[in-house]
Design goal:
This protein has 138 residues and is mostly helical. It is built from seven helices and no strands.
Length: 138
């Protein structure tokens, strides 16, 4: 967790690799360690704040943006504000969603500018989608 904190507090956002490499997210969520849960929540909140400053995006709002178009059973549930575990899951979902969208957009720009061909673009996009699906908390 300290490595992620150093990265975030130095002004860098978490990448999909960072989230994947930090294998303790799910064991942390299952633990009863309130101090660790609050520390993780603070780091994720800081990352979301950095994304807002750098990319002018509200990751949390984007997570729920199209929910009103879905049936009730498929909508993303809003967490209780006093439940650190659910808040961490929400923040992770928002970060994974934004990071996937950002990387997908960059790959598309590389394709359009001729830096990569279409097959490379598809391969890269599939890899990002696979990573994001694996990392998205249920």
């Amino acid at each position: 967790m300290k490595e992620l904190g150093n990265k975030i507090y130095s002004g860098e956002n978490l990448s999909l690799d960072d989230i994947r490499d930090f294998e303790n997210w799910y064991s942390l969520l299952e633990s009863g360690d309130e101090i660790a849960l609050n520390e993780a929540l603070q780091l994720l909140d800081k990352d979301i704040k950095l994304r807002n400053e750098k990319f002018y995006v509200d990751c949390i709002a984007d997570l729920y943006h199209y929910d009103d178009l879905l049936p009730e059973s498929l909508r993303t549930k809003h967490p209780k504000q006093d439940d650190a575990r659910d808040l961490i899951k929400e923040r992770l979902r928002a970060i994974v969603l934004h990071e996937y969208q950002r990387l997908h957009r960059l790959s598309g720009q590389d394709f359009i500018s001729g830096k990569i061909n279409f097959e490379e673009h598809i391969k890269i996009t599939r890899a990002y989608a696979t990573d994001a699906c694996k990392l998205y908390p249920q």
